[in-house]
Design a protein that fits this description.
This protein is mainly α and 466 residues long. The protein folds into two domains: 8-198 and 255-465, Growth Hormone, Chain: A, CATH 1.20.1250; 199-254. Helices cover 80% and strands 0% of the residues. The protein contains 20 helices and no strands. It has helices spanning 8-42, 46-49, 51-63, 67-73, 76-96, 100-128, 134-141, 143-146, 148-162, 167-170, 173-186, 200-218, 228-250, 264-293, 299-305, 307-327, 330-349, 356-383, 390-420, 427-465. Helix 14 runs parallel beside helix 19 (390-420). It starts with 7 loop residues before the first helix and ends with a helix.
C-alpha cells in the first residue's frame, strides 16, 4: 500500500472531483429560485416543477449505490472522465431546451453524472488521505453537499435577475472544463481494479425503492382527494427495499455490502445524516419560494438573503472537521445539531412575521450548525467501519444523502401545494401557511435528530473506550 501523504497532487484531485460535485449540487437549488418563472413559462404547477429537483435526485440516488462496484471495476480517472462529459452534455441540453420535458431530460442526464461523481471525492479522501487529516478533508469535502445547496439560490437569483434562466447551465460549463483538465492530470489509481460482478436485479430493486417512495411522497398534495397513489407508492417502495435487503444477504457479490449496518455507530449516524439532509433540501425549497411568493422579493434578493449563511457554513465545515480531529465528534456535532433545531423551530414559530432580515439571521444560525455537524456525522460513521467496508459505507451515505434530498423536496413541496389548494384566503396567505407547516415538519425531524445523535455518540464513545 502506498504511503498516505497530503501533497499538492492529492489536494488538486480532491478539488477537481469536488468542483464537479459542487456544480451538480449547486444547480439543484439554483433551479428552485427559477420555479416561479418556469411555472409561468411552461404553464405548470408547483407539484410538476419540483420534479426538476426530485427527478434529478432520484437518478443520483439510483446511481450512487453502484459506486462501490464502479470503484472496484473501473479506474477512478475513467469514471471521472465519464461523469464530467455526461454532466456537460446535460448542461447543454438544458441550456437549449424548448420544453419542460427536454429540460427535465437534461436534468436527469446531470443526475447520472452527479451519481458517479459524488462518491469519487470521498473515496479519494478515505483511500489516500493521512488518517490524522481525514476529519479536516472530509469537512472540506462536505462543503459541496452542505454549502452548495445554500449557494444555489444566490447563484440562480443573480442569473435570473440579470440574464435568462438558461444561463444557469451555461455558466457551469467552464467550471466543468477546469475540473476536467485538473482531474485528468492529478487523479491517480492506488488500488487494483478487478472484474467485479454486477447484480442487475439488485440495482432494479434499488431503483424501484427510490422511485416508488418518492412518487408516493410527491402525491401527498392530493392525498385528501385520492390517497391511493400515496399508499401504493409507499407500499411498493417498502416491498422493493425488503427484497433488495433479502437478495443482498443471499448472493456472494452484493451490490452493496449490507454488513456495514451491523455496526451500530454507523447506522445511528447514518440515520442522523438522513434527517439533516431532509431539512437542508427542504429549506432550500421553502426559503426562496417564501421570499418571492409571500414577501414579494425578487429572485436576486431571495438568493442574496441566504448567501451569508452559505458563507458561514463554508467557513465552519473545515473548522468543524479540525475540532473533530483534535477533540472528538461529540462537541461539534451536538452544538451544530442544536443550532439547526433552534433556527428552524424559530422560523416555524415566527412565520407570520418572517421578514427577509429575520430569515437571514436564522439561516446564519442554521448554517453555522450545518458547518459543525454535517461532515462530522459522516466522518464519525465511516470511521467506525473497517478499511474493507469504507467504499460500501461511502456508497450508503451518498445514496441516503441524495434520497433524503428528494424526500425533503417532495415532502415540503407537497405540504405547501396541499395548503395552496385550499379555497379560503388569498394565495399568498395559503403559501405562507403551507411554508409554516413545512418549517414545523422540518423542526420536528431536527428534534428527533438530537435524540438520535445523543444515542449514536454514546455508542461511539463506548466503542472507542472499551
Amino acid at each position: 500500500m502506498q504511503q498516505r501523504t497530503l501533497n499538492s497532487r492529492l489536494i488538486m484531485a480532491i478539488f477537481a472531483t469536488g468542483l464537479m460535485s459542487f456544480a451538480g449540487v449547486v444547480v439543484e437549488t439554483a433551479m428552485n429560485i427559477t420555479f416561479p418563472v418556469l411555472m409561468r413559462q411552461f404553464h405548470i404547477n408547483t407539484g410538476t416543477v419540483q420534479w426538476l429537483t426530485t427527478g434529478y435526485l432520484l437518478i443520483v440516488a439510483t446511481f450512487v449505490p453502484i459506486s462501490s462496484f464502479l470503484k472496484r471495476r473501473f479506474k477512478t480517472r475513467n469514471l471521472f472522465l465519464t461523469a464530467n462529459l455526461l454532466f456537460m452534455s446535460g448542461l447543454i441540453v438544458d441550456s437549449l431546451a424548448p420544453s419542460f420535458s427536454l429540460l427535465l431530460l437534461g436534468r436527469l442526464i446531470q443526475g447520472v453524472a452527479t451519481g458517479i461523481a459524488l462518491p469519487l471525492m470521498f473515496n479519494i479522501i478515505l483511500e489516500q488521505a493521512p488518517l490524522d487529516k481525514i476529519g479536516l478533508l472530509m469537512g472540506i469535502g462536505t462543503l459541496v453537499t452542505a454549502v452548495a445547496p445554500a449557494l444555489g439560490p444566490t447563484y440562480g437569483g443573480l442569473i435570473v435577475s440579470n440574464l435568462q434562466w438558461r444561463d444557469i447551465f451555461m455558466f457551469l460549463i467552464p467550471l466543468l472544463l477546469i475540473s476536467l483538465v485538473m482531474g485528468l492530470f492529478t487523479i491517480r489509481q492506488v488500488s487494483e481494479t478487478s472484474t467485479a460482478h454486477f447484480d442487475i436485479l439488485s440495482w432494479v430493486l434499488i431503483a424501484a425503492t427510490f422511485v416508488s417512495l418518492i412518487l408516493g411522497l410527491s402525491n401527498m398534495s392530493h392525498v385528501t382527494t385520492n390517497p391511493w397513489p400515496v399508499i401504493i407508492g409507499l407500499l411498493i417502495g417498502l416491498i422493493a427495499l425488503i427484497a433488495f435487503a433479502w437478495r443482498s444477504n443471499k448472493i456472494d457479490h452484493p451490490l452493496i455490502n449490507l454488513h456495514v449496518f451491523n455496526q451500530p455507530v454507523f447506522s445511528w449516524h447514518l440515520l442522523a445524516f438522513f434527517l439533516l439532509q431532509i431539512t437542508a433540501l427542504g429549506l432550500s425549497f421553502l426559503l426562496p419560494n417564501f421570499l418571492q411568493l409571500v414577501n414579494g422579493k425578487s429572485a436576486l434578493v431571495a438568493g442574496l438573503v441566504v448567501l451569508p449563511g452559505a458563507a458561514l457554513g463554508a467557513l465552519f465545515a473545515p473548522l468543524g472537521g479540525t475540532i473533530l480531529d483534535h477533540f472528538g465528534p461529540a462537541r461539534p456535532i451536538l452544538v451544530g445539531a442544536t443550532c439547526q433545531f433552534v433556527a428552524v423551530f424559530a422560523m416555524a414559530l415566527l412565520t407570520d412575521h418572517l421578514s427577509a432580515g429575520m430569515i437571514l439571521s436564522w439561516y446564519l444560525l442554521y448554517m453555522f450548525g450545518t458547518g459543525l455537524a454535517f461532515g462530522n456525522i459522516m466522518t464519525t460513521g465511516l470511521k467506525s467501519l473497517s478499511d474493507q467496508q469504507q467504499s460500501d459505507g461511502n456508497a450508503v451515505y451518498n445514496t441516503v444523502q441524495q434520497f433524503a434530498g428528494a424526500v425533503g423536496t417532495a415532502t415540503v413541496s407537497a405540504v405547501v401545494a396541499l395548503t395552496q389548494s385550499g379555497a379560503t384566503h388569498t394565495f399568498t396567505f395559503r403559501t405562507q401557511l403551507g411554508t409554516q407547516r413545512g418549517f414545523a415538519v422540518l423542526a420536528g425531524l431536527l428534534l428527533i435528530n438530537l435524540f438520535v445523535l445523543a444515542y449514536g455518540l454514546r455508542l461511539n464513545y463506548k466503542q472507542n473506550n472499551d
